[in-house]
Amino acid sequence: MGLFSRTIKKEKLSLVIDIGSASVSAALVDFSGDNKPKILLAEIREIALDHDLNFERFEKAMLSAFDASVSAIFHAKKPVPEEAHIFLASPWYAAQTRVIKSDKHTPFTVTSKLLKELTDKETKAFESTELAKYEQAGASARILERKTIDIKLNGYTTADPVGKRATELSMNLFISMSPESVLSRIEESLEKHFRISRVHFSSFLFSSFVVVRDLFISESDFLLLDIGGEVTDISIIKKGALVESASFPLGRNFLMRRLGVFGAERTPASMLSLYLRGTLEPAFASKVGTVLDEAKAQWLATFQKALFELSNDLL
Q1: What is the DSSP letter of 224?
Q2: pLDDT tens, residue by residue, 256-278
Q3: Phi-psi domain of 184 (left: phi exceeds 0; alpha: psi -120 through 50; beta: other)
Q4: Strand residue runs (E) in the chain
Q5: Over 60: is that where the pLDDT of 6 sits?
Q6: CA angle 219, 225, 230 (to 5 degrees)
Q7: I need a surface site. Which of 125, 228, 237, 274 has the fewest CB within 10 A?
């Protein structure tokens, strides 16, 4: 049963964890109320900034932040959660939206069996290409999600296609995966503190898409932008469906590293805060402004390139 299900059990106490590229946030959430879920406790731990980014050190720092946030929840002596929902942001997962089409000359009836066969076939195609890349590198990966975003019959979206007749069927299938080494280490860290039988992994991309889509129900076409610590994710939503996504490795920490050229007299974060408040001495503020302008130009150029490569239709 998904976190966003309307039929979630009322007695559930869940551990909800957001693993980003700059921090790890963990919260103990009570879903037993009749209204909104209640956050009983929340802990946030920053992922240590590596001035010379190395993925192995980055992964180790993320796992350290994860362990610290979960440990803080455990030592708060709150009730034990029944399940855990863990959301992975870039770069901890890879995802793809695949379009499935079935066209026939004569009308056919859509059945649950047909939909399953189509999604199974597309998943196997995804595994044979994407999972093979991990295997070639001597690693393995695990499928996180396989979500049908929308189904169209003869070009029209339908929420209940089973039993209907059509000559053309198309589906948008969202599939995500994550390295097995990352997932297993996360599970091991979680098991040190809690004996949770149900652990659900999800991509932050799909979860944020669902939330934004449901919050802004009047908007069917939009751009979803998530600027994280190390990565910026771009997603294109058309007619209420997540159709394309891409990412590039420039996030908040990109600015921190650029500001690191001024040495250790001030931390990059405090330097940026003082600059934005206008309290830096004028001569030094001018130097900081020059660095930030250069970083801005680089980020915008990369953003524009990513948009162009994503979809010419958008432009």
Answers
A1: E
A2: 889 888 876 678 888 889 999 99
A3: alpha
A4: 13-19, 23-30, 38-46, 83-88, 94-109, 141-153, 156-157, 165-179, 198-203, 222-227, 232-238, 241-248
A5: no
A6: 165
A7: 125
Rounded CA gap, 145 and 175, in Å?
5
Q: Examine residue 91 and say whether the peptide bond preceding it is cis (omega within 30 degrees of 0).
A: yes
Return d(Cα 45, Cα 72) in angstroms, integer.
10
The values of phi and psi at residue 313, to 5°, are -60, -35
Instruction: Write out the DSSP string of 30-73.
Output: E--SSSS-EEEEEEEEEPPPPSS--HHHHHHHHHHHHHHHHHHH
Q: Give CA separation, 303 vs 55, 91, 206, 272, in Å.
A: 22, 17, 21, 22
pLDDT, tens digit, 9 for 90 and up, residues 172-189: 999 999 999 999 999 999
User: Over the stretch 105-159, which tens digit does the pLDDT of each residue have?
Assistant: 899 999 999 999 999 998 888 888 877 777 666 678 899 999 998 899 998 888 8
- Lookup: tokens for 308: 């162009």
Nearest to 8 by CA among 109, 99, 83, 92: 83
Please tell me the pTM assigned to this model.
Answer: 0.85
| Chain centroid to CA 101 | 26
Report the amino acid identity of residue 70. V
Tokens of 74: 């455990």
Amino acid, single-letter form, for residue 71:
S
